[in-house]
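A brief tutorial aside. Many learners find it easier to grasp structure tokens once they have seen a single protein encoded end to end. The record that follows does exactly this for Rhomboid-related protein 1. Read the sequence first, then the structure, and try to relate runs of similar tokens to stretches of the chain.
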Amino acid sequence: MASKSLLYLITLDPENTGFIAVENFTSLVEHHELQLDPSKLDMLLALVQSNDEGQVCYQELIELMSSKRSSSFRRAIANGRRTLQREILLDETGLGLYKRFVRYVAYEILPCETDRRWYFHQNRLCPPPVFIAIVTIVQIIVFMCYGIMLNKWVLQTYQPDFMKSPLVYHPGHRAQVWRFFSYMFMHVGLEQLGFNALLQLMIGVPLEMVHGILRISLLYMAGVLAGSLTVSITDMRAPVVGGSGGVYALCSAHLANVVMNWAGMRCPYKLLRMILALVCMSSEVGRAVWLRFSPPLPSSGPQPSFMAHLSGAVVGISMGLLILRSYEESLQKQCSWWVIVFSFITFLLFAIFWNIFAYELLGVQIPPPP
């Protein structure tokens, strides 16, 4: 049916100018000569109402028929030049369990009603949101393995057997590059593991369902890498464990997106939930600061650094906010995206040179690796 409709559209532009007269286009939409689902029909009406030049771009129409979105539709929506004709998603009844969850995710993540409806109608289970789920499962498995092996469920970095893990970041092993990433699988106790797993599942899975595995995995791993690199620069004697860098990147990006689009967000009790999230995140940072400088038990080495939390939050507010704001739009075409990428690469190069030369030049006394 879509190919038949596209062939019909070609007759509206017989001279192959790339544009269709608004009169012909309006008549086409009003008489429903194209059999479209309601969400696409609304988009067509938005395109007509936002046009001031008496013509419609043929390529934009083709992209819409192919289930793609272009900036012209977003501008039309942003200018408020159309109203929604159908009932809002919350009024729809008779949905299955999965569709109800998709509707919840749409209202939880997206600030624009048209984006929510577009996502609701276009959502498919393939590919599934597997990245956050796999990371969480691996973190739980690693924690259980070390808990059984050491016969301890409250692990600490001053325990030699725990620190001998090839996954922990330790300044004495910073030449082993994989540790700048692999530390996210190690946790020092059920409290830290539970907090990180709960947050990344509650926030990360809906974000991944809407924005896709590539964007969310990029955001999460950028927070993880920024966390360990920041510790290697600002807290040079401290080890790092836990996935807090990635978790705080997801959380801060989502919270910043809610604040930036406060009026459009339809998630219930958003103010109360934001306050609770900020209190929980601040409490976790405070706990990490306290453990870093005032450990409850005497230890033979420094406690894990808290700087990974803060750097992850910075990554989320900068890179993450841009990723979440541009739903189904190409990041490569945005100047601000390249500014963020350039800044991150600059920080990465600086951190590499710092780890190679600064420790010896500054004479930092690194605790001996286990």
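Self-check: The radius of gyration is 25 Å. If you spotted this yourself, you are ready for the next section.
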